């Protein structure tokens, strides 16, 4: 084992922030993460963008333990760290409160339910690829493929009207662009999305159409309004850019490291644990 890394602790986190405070992560993990993970306890104190310090846990087994052990609480952390309005969302609840909200949507995320989306996703993927091929000699994988395919999938799953999707695209992009927009601009996008979803949920409660939004409107009617509205927002924000980034990242990974050329220098290390369920 290497010696613990010496540094004028705490680190600034995320570790890819430039001197201007903007985070510019690349495809590969910042070398610092490897150093931290491979030395000492694998846990260091970091300084958050929003201010204050936190512990950065870098080893897989420790992360699993933190996520599973009820000694670690999301709710108790919120008063110190609710920069993203997570109060009342799945990412801000513990125990029975968390289970109550999660139960509202969990039947839409079983392997069988996700499998039923396969045809629709394949059609959407083929249409986007065809459009890229038809547009000429070059295309932008992120803008023309990854972002729209991921957004169409998650908005289909929720049942957001086609006519509203451009608005959701802009609101979500703005909300997620913490490093390029001011907190006020990000907040304004969240409010706009919140108002719109609140109206949609009321509408679905009066006129259900069998989609996930109608289910949240009906089964979540007993929850505070904030929790009802933040649930589809969490699904949209949590399920969109994560998937889009991974489509782009792993396209690059497969192009640069085709199957069969796996080597010990490759920074992503496979974990042997089989996938049991699908988010959330
Ligand atoms: C490759 C894509 C994805 C990645 C890398 C990813 C990553 C993660 C991680 C690390 C967490 C745990 C966060 C924590 O507990 O602090 C999480 C939770 C969650 N994710 Fe994802 N996610 C992905 C796709 C999705 C999708 C497609 C959806 C929704 C359609 C989604 C919705 C959620 C929700 C709602 C939670 C909270 C779950 C709970 O607390 O019970 N994610 N995700």
TrEMBL record:
Gene3D superfamilies: Cytochrome P450 (1.10.630.10). SUPFAM superfamilies: Cytochrome P450. InterPro entries: Cyt_P450_B, Cyt_P450_sf. Coiled coil: none annotated. PANTHER family: CYTOCHROME P450 YJIB-RELATED, P450, PUTATIVE (EUROFUNG)-RELATED. Belongs to the cytochrome P450 family. This is Cytochrome P450. The lineage of its organism: Bacteria, Bacillati, Actinomycetota, Actinomycetes, Streptosporangiales.
């Amino acid at each position: 084992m290497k010696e613990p890394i010496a540094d004028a602790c705490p680190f600034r986190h995320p570790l890819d922030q430039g001197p201007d405070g903007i985070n510019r992560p690349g495809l590969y993990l910042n070398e610092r993460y490897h150093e931290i993970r491979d030395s000492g306890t694998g846990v260091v104190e970091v300084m958050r963008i929003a201010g204050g310090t936190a512990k950065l846990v870098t080893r897989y087994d420790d992360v699993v333990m933190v996520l599973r052990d009820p000694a670690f609480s999301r709710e108790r952390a919120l008063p110190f760290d609710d920069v993203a309005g997570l109060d009342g969302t799945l990412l801000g609840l513990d125990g029975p409160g968390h289970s109550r909200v999660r139960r509202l949507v969990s039947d839409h995320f079983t392997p069988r339910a996700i499998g039923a989306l396969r045809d629709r996703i394949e059609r959407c993927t083929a249409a986007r690829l065809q459009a890229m091929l038809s547009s000429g000699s070059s295309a932008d994988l992120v803008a023309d493929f990854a972002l729209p395919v991921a957004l169409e999938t998650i908005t289909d799953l929720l049942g957001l009207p086609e006519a509203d999707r451009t608005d959701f695209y802009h609101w979500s992009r703005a909300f997620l662009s913490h490093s390029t927009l001011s907190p006020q601009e990000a907040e304004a996008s969240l409010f706009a999305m919140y108002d719109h979803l609140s109206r949609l949920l009321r509408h679905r409660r009066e006129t259900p159409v069998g989609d996930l939004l109608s289910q949240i409107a009906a089964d979540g009617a007993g929850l505070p309004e904030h929790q009802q509205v933040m649930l589809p927002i969490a699904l949209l924000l949590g399920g969109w850019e994560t998937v889009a980034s991974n489509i782009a990242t792993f396209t690059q990974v497969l192009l640069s490291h085709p199957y069969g050329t796996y080597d010990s220098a490759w920074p992503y290390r496979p974990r042997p644990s089989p996938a049991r369920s699908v988010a959330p």
